Fold this sequence. Notes:
The complex is a heterotetramer, with 2 copies of chain A (389 residues) and 2 copies of chain C (367 residues). With 389 residues, chain A is of the alpha+beta class. Chain A has helices at residues 2-19, 46-58, 76-89, 98-110, 113-124, 239-255, 264-271, 282-310, 318-341, 357-365, 375-386; strands at residues 130-133, 149-153, 156-167, 174-180, 191-197, 203-207, 217-228, 232-233, 274-275, 278-279. Chain C is built from 12 helices and 10 strands. In chain C, a hairpin with a 2-residue loop joins strand 9 and strand 10 (260-261).
Amino acid sequence: MDQDLNLFREEASAWLEKYCPKSMRVPILDQKEFYWGGRKSTFDSKDQQIWFERMLEKRWIAPHWPVKYGGGGLSLKENRVIEEEMERLGCRKPLLSFGITMLGPALLEFATEPQRIKYLNEIVAGKIRWCQGYSEPNAGSDLAGLQTKAEENGDYYLVNGTKVWTSYGDKADWIFALVRTNFEVKKQEGISFLLIDMNTPGVSTRPIKLISGISPFTETFFDNVQVPKDQLVGDLNAGWTIAKYLLTHERQMIGSMANNRRKLSDIAKEQLCLKNGILMNPILRTEVARNEMDTEIFNLTVTRAVDEARAGHHSGAVSSMFKYYGTELNIQRQELNMALRGSRGLEWESEASSQGFEARTFLRSKGNSIEGGTHEIQLNIIAKQILKL
Amino acid sequence: MDQDLNLFREEASAWLEKYCPKSMRVPILDQKEFYWGGRKSTFDSKDQQIWFERMLEKRWIAPHWPVKYGGGGLSLKENRVIEEEMERLGCRKPLLSFGITMLGPALLEFATEPQRIKYLNEIVAGKIRWCQGYSEPNAGSDLAGLQTKAEENGDYYLVNGTKVWTSYGDKADWIFALVRTNFEVKKQEGISFLLIDMNTPGVSTRPIKLISGISPFTETFFDNVQVPKDQLVGDLNAGWTIAKYLLTHERQMIGSMANNRRKLSDIAKEQLCLKNGILMNPILRTEVARNEMDTEIFNLTVTRAVDEARAGHHSGAVSSMFKYYGTELNIQRQELNMALRGSRGLEWESEASSQGFEARTFLRSKGNSIEGGTHEIQLNIIAKQILKL
Amino acid sequence: MSLVLTEEQQMLKIAAKEFLIEKAPIAFLRKLRDTEDEMGYDPELWLEMAAMGWTSLTIPEEYGGLGFGYVGLGEVLEETGRTLTCSPLISTSLLCASAIQLGGSLGYKHQFFQELIKGIVYAFATDEQSHHDPDYVETKAEKAGSGFVLTGTKTFVLDGHVAAKYVVSAKFEERIHLFVVDADAVGIQKERIIMMDSRNSSDVSFEKTPAICMLSGAEETYHRTLDIGRIGLASEMLGATLEAFQRTVAYLKERRQFGVSIGSFQALQHRASKMFCEIEMVKSIVLKALQMIDREDENLAIWASMAKVKAGEVIKLVTNEAIQIYGGIGMTDDEEIGFFIKRARAAQVTLGDYNFHLDRYAKLHGY
Amino acid sequence: MSLVLTEEQQMLKIAAKEFLIEKAPIAFLRKLRDTEDEMGYDPELWLEMAAMGWTSLTIPEEYGGLGFGYVGLGEVLEETGRTLTCSPLISTSLLCASAIQLGGSLGYKHQFFQELIKGIVYAFATDEQSHHDPDYVETKAEKAGSGFVLTGTKTFVLDGHVAAKYVVSAKFEERIHLFVVDADAVGIQKERIIMMDSRNSSDVSFEKTPAICMLSGAEETYHRTLDIGRIGLASEMLGATLEAFQRTVAYLKERRQFGVSIGSFQALQHRASKMFCEIEMVKSIVLKALQMIDREDENLAIWASMAKVKAGEVIKLVTNEAIQIYGGIGMTDDEEIGFFIKRARAAQVTLGDYNFHLDRYAKLHGY
Lengths: 389, 389, 367, 367
């Protein structure tokens, strides 16, 4: 079995080496070099298009999804091998997609067969770009308190309300949204999961500007939007189960995204003086060491959790730990990065600072402990679900 | 007026210089050099007795209490001058007494005239040593949840229950205690304030050993103890008001007791190496600096609060801040003291360590954030009373 | 000296508060930012501030000033911290006027104070690297005729692109002295850099630029000027901290989640209570340090470092917590709370961050 | 290598747990302390531990050991941390047996391992000051006939007053080597010092004391032995942390105040959750570091420092919080939780505290 996997790895590696264009194996320098698919997108380069089309044909856009849904029908282990080899060879992702990372898993678990066939195939082919409609202005941490309502009316739902923090709401084609379909019951029990075409009359978006400058977020407004009933996923009023399932996914993604960055100590060596091989600012040296060590140990803990999951131990609530701890380390890192750069780190609109890249990244990091469930919510979950307090 | 005070200061200073025995002007080295008064006590030395008797005659045991209660009838400012001059000249306190610092203020505020005459005069004369009976085993932070009950029975109350954390319960003659006299009402509204002679049949104590070794604390048991009704202070069921009044007093005492100690940086210089005048352990150096600086700033804040109180601004809840912040600084200081002393600081029963003085002091400091209202309770009070959350 | 404001100081503070809330609330800073104003401050408002007497507060009466003292200027700065008002008050009145007061000759005092009182903008140029290090001055002064010429490059010069004059640190005969330079003198190049807090900073270089006078007192003047600047900054930071905290506490009461106000959650209550305590500490050290300037205390360096450490640590704590407690709303540019974290970071770095000053505190105490 | 225990390691751990809970719970330590036992450990229990194979775990099979490896010994140490069992396991099996394995000749291995397996107590003597500093070794070795004599003074020698032999660091020709010394050899003076955690430590001095052999490998053996010791200690500390935390969480559920369990207070919940996360981190680094001993990894120094820092910081956090959450009851000697804070502090200081190791981590990474 492991032998088979080694063979698969060799083949995958050889294929990638052969078919991944050279320009698709250099690091991304600009957001627009990512291909997100969807009705409004075009390819940024010929190579980008070639790479996407080859991977699509190879059925490696979503290698572990079943073939009938556009996937490659491979095992999770084979999927992991492809990911590892792509990372090793520096191959870019052919398609970035919330459809694959967020909506797809939910559809595979909860959707009807016709829904899966339609939506999953569209996602893989890069035809439809999805965004997520969960948060609302008056229901931040209290997600289940959402008020966007969907009323049954013949063969459609009439949707009214406002969502906030929709990532790329202005660029997406469809939105998967949580809506309230029953106001009479416990708040968690009156929520449904709807798929909505953003071309439907009554849907509009407005960009959200963050303290760090422009942002990918929008507010999304629903004004008497008619949504056909076959766009409901799962049972009516059973949307909360789907939402929780996806939140756990999201947390894991956010918590473990803090990789592939310059070592903080390398930045420290560049920004501060060394004397006899020791950083001359003893306070920052200590804090840098602590952050680097904690980051290393955090990564070990991610590995350990994976190893334990393989060995059959798995706890959903642990994702709250990763979200909390991983984002906290990144927030501290950004604090230290600012301290290391002194007054140069404060620059906001100079060429030397790439229009304030460091300062804006720092400010943006303050949102890490808020989005995807605040620190407070994660700590509540650990206390309740793991410690049973 | 200020001129009068200066004159008073000169006279006080001259009197102290003349009448305070030399041996009463050297620092205390052993607990037993403190004179606490009471039925069970004797003087540790002739000078101790002389000093107490001279101060008693001068009416400076409680200088600002009215003369009829045994005090000197002086103003608060004059009282402060005496304290300052005694501190400046290194004069020991002639009498340590919870009667003066804790019970006295409550009696002055809440007792009947006959009660004041009797008890305050006894306190000043060092005849009766008092202890405090507040905490109970099952009502730690929830002081008002106390269960020791006092039932009316003719001309006495019948008291049953257990108190813990009675300081010097085995050495005191009388105890002032909070007891429940009504179980039917809101818990704060059924509490009374009783004075109890510990010679009464049914009162017994048991010492409490702490993690730091022996301690001044006892448990105090009341088993069908008959307490004459004229030993009730204030109205029946109005004891909570007195308790709150005294707790505020106690907090201020605990929070500001952290003075007259060796500078942490002097200990650091002695225990660690210096190189070019800089402590070679950069991490401890930073922490020592932070603790010293915060302690200096804390003391400034105490001064500011006094100055503001003089200027007419006063907030009772601020005592919670002093209790919380002052004890926290001491706890950190003890942590640092241990870190500075390395393995020598761990010694527990060696002569070189004076039977583990440092280690025991460290362990004892862990109680600072518990006794006199826990950190959590102080933070609750600040949130509710000052921030109105 | 009591650790409370006198009645006069209290009145000045209230007048400043009212003026700033009316004339220069945070919306004013937002407008300057969004219109990409070329000056980066409002000259008319600045003249009104001068008319209020703020540029005269620390200047002795014999030179036409008010001789009110640094506690007064500190209280005004605290109020500008609350409204995040940007103006040349720090560069001109806090730093340059102090340098001239400490080191200027009688004649120069008469000349410069007149301008300073009127609100002519002076900028203080000392840093040469991204990390504040007062001992690192490579800018050189050379004798030239009866005066001097300066050569070197300065960075993080607040209001450097709009100043009429600079007070510049430079080395002459191995020691650091302060020089006054006309902003339109030969050999000067300047580049405006807009910072995170939307305020003005510049890189300024000098190439054989005539320096029209030299201040006496040398290094002592230089270091004391820096210490006064640090204490004034700490006062501004205290104001920003108080305002950010006040808004956060109000938000805790107002914002509802799970059917209750979020201020009813104990974890948030405890964090708010801890902030309250820390802010009380900042109040004490800032007032004490301001009083010590007026008292001409010899240990000003220690008071300055204490004030800058504590104000820096606490403003960081409070502005971080403010964003966290405001949640997603706090992350948006529409909400004003984000302006506080931006100013917090810039003020923290100016004239030495808390790491620099904690290290200095230990050094000054001989360890 | 997966970051999980193998089935064999898991079984060893469970057996150790059951043995210790039955034979050496905290009451056992209390009794040793209160009876002022002269040995400071229970020789019979120690022989039972040897009979369980714990002294043989890391000794290769060719010398009569089990060759089970350090992950196994680490799991046993973790369990002794839970029960706070004091025994010569750290001094004898973790430190001295490792030194002999790394540096002993074939003949000496045969000789010493036989004793070590049987449970003859060996003590490791290296510190000469109150702060661990492995490079500071003033004890001197001199040639004397075919062997050596040692002169110097050691402190903080665990089990030093009951050991039959010492492994001692000393300088010979400017380099640090390890020597084995009989405890009853001439020139030895020892003074037992009872520490805060009720365990044994001694000051031991040598005056021309014959050292019966010299271990090869010199400084590498010395430093690697220390690193193995640090990782084993971190494992013990993890056990104590887990137990203290488990008891604290149970207390949070059980203790009632204001009519509810104190575990329902959000401020305490958040502190408990943070502790949970930190402990998960300790688990990862301790297991990884133990595996790296068995793998004979070249960077053991880094893994050892990481394990000692994280275990030290977290045990401090958890034992402090434990006392605070237990409240007054936690301060009493009757309650067992106080024993954990005492062991925490002693273990933290042994072979370098977290400050020492954080500094070392930075140095090892070249900054």
